[in-house]
Request: fold
Amino acid sequence: MPSQQHLSSASDRIGNLPRLEGYYYPPEVALADNGRVHVATYIRADLKYKLIDPQMQDMEGLGSMCAVQISMRGRRPLNLVNVYYPRGCKAQGCTYWLTQLSSDSGSWVVMGDFNAHHRMWDADAESSPDTQLAEDISISDLVLLNDGTATRQAQRQRDRSSAIDLTLVSPELALTIDWQVYPNTLGSDHYLIHATIHEADPDPAEVDLTPKYICAKADWEKFKKTLTHICGETEFKDNDIDQ
Reply:
């Protein structure tokens, strides 16, 4: 929440946000302490919505969040959470709130710039420092839609493009949603991400929730030794790897 001295500046910056035909204006936003707009959520003008509080106390002072619940005929409520974490935010437990989102209040879509690096969503990552976020995603009831495609372009010649913008959805939405990264930045250093929900989501009770492994806690050295031991005892009678 911006302080009183920043309210005027914040109002000016919100007023400078672009208008989109057919969408409410101004959009719902989340502001930094200096009044800078961190995230903006545009909602189609023919939809009813309300602001919600997903109880993200562990995010206070670490990032910005704007959460709305959208009502649509023939569908469960859709909870849309738009987040931004500043670069270098690696506070322990700052993404624990992901594990607390309940399907009782509707379906969830969490999107935003997490400024996080891990091989779970970026196969080309040189290291995986953000294991806390990876673990929180693993134990949550959300599905990560990222497929490894870079979402931010390299800014210097020696840098590489990276995937730091994540999209997480409820399991029932993952079955009906198309997720795609477009190679266009519109002047930003982040690529456009387009997610489309095509049809009414099925009853969550009918969704097969396959158990997930917490990769961040795996003992990979032990796994490697076990695999080496097993393979060492296997006799291959021919060169057909499909046998």
Remarks:
- The chain has one domain: 47-232.
